[in-house]
Write a structure and sequence with these properties.
The chain has helices at about 15-25, 45-55, 70-85, 100, 115-125, 145-155, 180-185, 200-210, 220-225, 230-235, 245-260, 265-280, 285-295, 300-315; strands at about 5, 30-35, 65, 65, 90-95, 130-135, 160-165, 190-195, 215-220. Helix content is about 45%, strand content about 10%. It binds flavin mononucleotide. Flavin mononucleotide binds near residues 195 and 222. The site of flavin mononucleotide has 20 residues, from helix 9.
Length: about 325
């Protein structure tokens, strides 16, 4: 069975610059999801979202925009906006776990409100012909919350439901709940995609063995921590390419240069790259030492020196 690998969106990380460079240097991902658009009650799409979704800025084979809202009008507005750019699908985020979002009844805080989900999907399906897909956790307080939404979701021709196998109140702590994910599989006619903690080829193999009926897997943090992971999963190998560190360095230099051009002032670029190194450092032999060296680098020259040294010290 051929499998599809999808890049799970990470706000602040997987924007168009990252996605384009990732696809160019590593490959292995069939479909990229853009981080969510959020409108905060206004029917306006902010410039940074516009830039991220502009087809001229995107060179990956397939990109699917995402929205986070609990408002039927906002949802329809986002559908029409992404349609005007030429997209045919919009993904709906019912997974975000952060209290700022969930307390407003959005993200995973909306899973326990099937009636509200129905209102959004009803308007969207009556007033738009766009394809809609979902990305959700299994609940906020309990992993059974999602099961109660299936009766509502089952009324609509959703393309798929991607499930991050955690609940909102866990944030990113604790493990994924595979038994609860299995319960979902039995209770919905919709196609489910698996998401959560695919951090190595062996972790992927375990999930695949447990759920042979799943053929779409979303990878989020794992592909930033190890960008070779998707292509290695596709090639069913645990062997890295010979020139692993050269490719990684070229990828790093490409995104660094692009973010440096796009961000103004020394602090934003430092924070941006530090965010990436929190994940990248996991690929290196001495993770805490590598992260500390980047954190300590106080200016652009020191940063570049630190990066050169980190890559030079890496044997294989
Ligand atoms: C910093 C950060 C930002 C995220 N932003 C989004 C987002 O914009 N949309 C979304 O659906 N999920 C978002 N997520 C969740 C991830 O896409 C993914 O579902 C989650 O990390 C579990 O998958 P993983 O274990 O493969 O990372 C984010 C996660 C993190 C850590």
């Amino acid at each position: 069975m051929s499998i599809k690998l999808l890049s799970s969106p990470l706000q602040g990380f997987t924007d168009f610059r990252f996605r384009n460079a990732f696809h160019h240097y590593f490959g292995g991902i069939d479909t990229f999801y853009a981080p969510y658009i959020k409108m905060n009650g206004k029917l306006i799409i902010k410039n940074n979202y516009q830039r991220d979704l502009n087809p001229e800025n995107n060179s990956v084979p397939e990109l699917i925009p995402q929205v986070m809202t609990n408002n039927p009008d906002e949802f329809l507005f986002a559908l029409n906006y992404v349609k005007s750019l030429g997209y045919t699908e919009l993904n709906w985020n019912l997974g975000c776990p952060y209290p700022m979002v969930t307390k407003q009844g959005m993200g995973s805080g909306m899973i326990c409100q099937p009636q509200k989900i129905d209102e959004v999907l009803h308007k969207a399906h009556t007033e738009s012909d766009m394809t809609i897909s979902m990305k959700m956790r299994m609940g906020y307080d309990e992993p059974t919350e999602i099961l109660k939404t299936f009766a509502i979701l089952g009324k609509y021709p959703l393309k798929n439901i991607a499930i991050h196998a955690r609940i909102g109140k866990q944030l990113y702590k604790g493990g994924v709940d595979l038994d609860a994910f299995e319960a979902c599989l039995k209770q919905t006619p919709h196609q489910l995609y698996y998401n959560g903690d695919i951090t190595s080829v062996n972790a992927f193999r375990k999930i695949q063995q447990r759920f042979p009926e799943i053929n779409h897997f979303m990878i989020g943090r794992g592909l930033i921590a190890d960008p070779f992971l998707p292509s290695m999963i596709k090639n069913d190998t645990t062997e890295y390419p010979e020139n692993k560190w050269q490719i990684f360095k070229e990828f790093h230099d490409t995104i660094y240069q692009q973010y440096d051009e796009a961000l103004s002032g020394p602090t934003p670029i430092k924070m941006k790259m530090l965010g990436f190194w929190e994940y990248f450092s996991q690929s290196f032999d001495n993770t805490p030492k590598v992260y500390k060296a980047i954190k300590k680098a106080g200016n652009a020259v020191k940063y570049k020196n630190a990066v050169n040294e980190i890559f030079a010290n890496q044997k294989r």
